[in-house]
Amino acid sequence: APMYNKAYYESCDALLGISKQTVNINKLVLGEKAKGKIIDYVPHGMNNKVFYPISEDSSEYTEVEKLKKQITKDKDSKFILFFNSRNIRRKSIPDTLLAWKYFVDQLPQEEAEQCYFVLHTDLVNDAGTDLPVVKDYLFGKDYNNIIFSNQKLSAPQLNHLYNIADGQILLSSAEGWGLSLTEALLAGTPIIANVTGGMQDQMRFEDKNGGWIDFNADFPSNHTGRYQKCGKWALPVFPNNRSLVGSPPTPYIWDDRCTSEDAAERIMELYKMSPEQRKEAGNAGYEWATNNEAGFTSEHMGNRIITNLDKLFNTWVPREDYEFINVSEVKEDILPHKLLY
What we know:
Blueprint: H1 6-10, E1 14-17, H2 20-30, E2 38-41, H3 61-72, E3 79-84, H4 93-105, H5 109-112, E4 115-120, H6 131-139, E5 146-149, H7 155-164, E6 167-170, H8 179-186, E7 191-194, E8 234-237, E9 241-245, E10 253-257, H9 260-272, H10 275-289, H11 298-315
Parallel strand pairs: 1-2, 3-4, 3-6, 4-5, 6-7, 7-8
Antiparallel strand pairs: 9-10
Helix pairs in contact: 3-7, 4-6, 4-9
């Protein structure tokens, strides 16, 4: 828990956490000072009138099929995986490319040639790496089934990409939420993701009573894999290494890393599903993401913010102009939760 953020949290009257983990972090860091503050879960919401499933009877279906043929160069395709995020280190794109390598190497050549991986991201970034070099090293210059998309796309164009994909993958080693997973869910596309941060919310892990898991000081994250059962739309990759990293502004933070081998297994699991099974899984994700429990839509998010602001304005009491703090009585901030759980 980032105790170095305590002063920032204390200065707020309301803290609206984008993930269940963030809500728990707010409470852990504030301790007794959490009392009297509004601390609530307000997950990210996207416009579900922009990101949505496109069915065969839709007027847009022809455009989606045309895009699919452009990507595959009119060749037969059996499986398309999609990645959409920034080319920065924590997004773990080289690990994702390596997972794709492990996956296609297990397939007969004829099947491997019908599998495509589309990555919408910058090709080269100082905060990330040179992706074409990584691709050429792993697959060779003649391998054409990895397609890089680095041009600016509108939200409707992105929705078409989500709709042609059989799955969306995001293996970030540190992720507050993971908006591309939300967009994929709203488009009815299954997700493969590392179990960390807000990404675990979007997989809806169940506790022993079948409820959506919550976090506390004894259980601050499911990255240890305590709970395995999740929504049928999600294929989780549990990290096998949790490294404590940091920088001067953020002295310590967990860096959860999963292996490319484990990710490849999840890609294979999705690949082996029938198109009907993948569609069923994606539809289940769409139904959940848009219902009142998850509410990963702009409308749900807006209403939750309005509710909390109304509550804040109705209960807010102005603070004193100043307060005296006896520095000799200030305790050092030490670990407020378990490390092994």
